[in-house]
Amino acid sequence: MAGADDPVGALDPVRGPGNWGRWGAEDERGAVNLITGDRVLAACRGPRQGGVYELGIELRRNAPVGGERTAPMHFMVHDGGDFAALERHDWGTADDYLTLYPQGTTHIDGLAHMWSGGRLYNGFSYREVRSSGAGRLGVEKLGGIVTTAHLLDFADRAGDRNSDITVDDIEAHFARVGARPEPGDALLFRTGWMDAALAAEPLHERGFAVVAPGTADWFAAHDIAVVGADNIAVEAPGRRGALPPLHARLVCELGVTLIEMLDLRQPAMAGVTTGMLVVAPLRISRGVGSPVNPLLVT
Questions:
Q1: pLDDT category, 1, cuts 50, 70, 90?
Q2: Handedness of CA 283, 286, 291, 296 (dihedral sign)
Q3: Distance (Å, rounded) from C-alpha 58 to C-alpha 44?
Q4: Order of strands across the sheet that contains 107-109
């Protein structure tokens, strides 16, 4: 029964949906628990070419942003002008500072980023997220991620407003490249959205493929730990106030980590379909997301 302090009532994570209780009632890491030491070592054995691709976009004032957020703002505290105005020395220093939305650039969503039915992942109450930050599921709990990633390229569908990336599309990709995902792997989807955004094209006039909500059960069945995309939400941005169905299933129920606003152009154009993904979220205490510059090593 719901109480005055918790309108959704107490839930036992063991009987909850998806992965609730799978790694214990106190788990705050979710599906990244699937990335065991063996899976890390398997990922490290994958690279053969020595290629390193940066998947984060530049932090700059005119960078693409997601939702109603604003672009990063970068300011100099000390610079060469200060040096020139003072008594001359043969050396000097520069210092700067940066203000940004942690989820306004290439970023990773913490599991406290979203709740559904009043519940965060693993049954924790939405009341855990307060003005002081996330008392549970803070992004600092995720830790570093090293796993095998699969790059699925659907940028050729750019311009089609009604193109969903479905389970059949995912299966067809793996059949074509002759691979299968393992538990703890990451799937990275290129839709062409970031290509257009970085080229300052009018995004509202074009359509891009999005990951369909119906793929969530496939991700769950294959124990996918991380899902990323080169757009602002992986799935289609919902109407204001509407529940994003893929987020609700992946984040709230399965504890899957999402990475959004990736720049996948270079590895895709090089024909990369798999590699070692390295992601280190900033240890933002009680944060609900973190900017990242993931590396894909081939």
A1: very low
A2: positive
A3: 27
A4: 52-54, 295-297, 274-279, 145-153, 186-190, 226-229, 257-260, 107-109, 289-291
- Angle at the Cα of 216 (from 134 to 1), degrees rounded to 5? 50
Q: Which two tokens stand for residue 79?
A: 């610079």
CATH architecture group of domain 24-61+102-297:
3-Layer(bba) Sandwich (3.50)
Per the CB < 8 A criterion, the answer to whether 284 and 132 are in contact is no
- Band the pLDDT of 13: cuts 50, 70, 90: very low
pLDDT in tens, 63-102: 888 778 888 888 888 767 766 666 666 777 788 899 999 9
Q: What count of residues does the chain have?
A: 298
8 Å CB contact between 208 and 199: no
pTM of the predicted structure, to 2 decimals = 0.91
Question: Domain coordinates of the chain in residue numbers?
Answer: 24-61+102-297
C-beta of residue 151 within 8 angstroms of C-beta of residue 268: yes
Give the count of beta carbons closer than 10 Å to the beta carbon of residue 159: 13
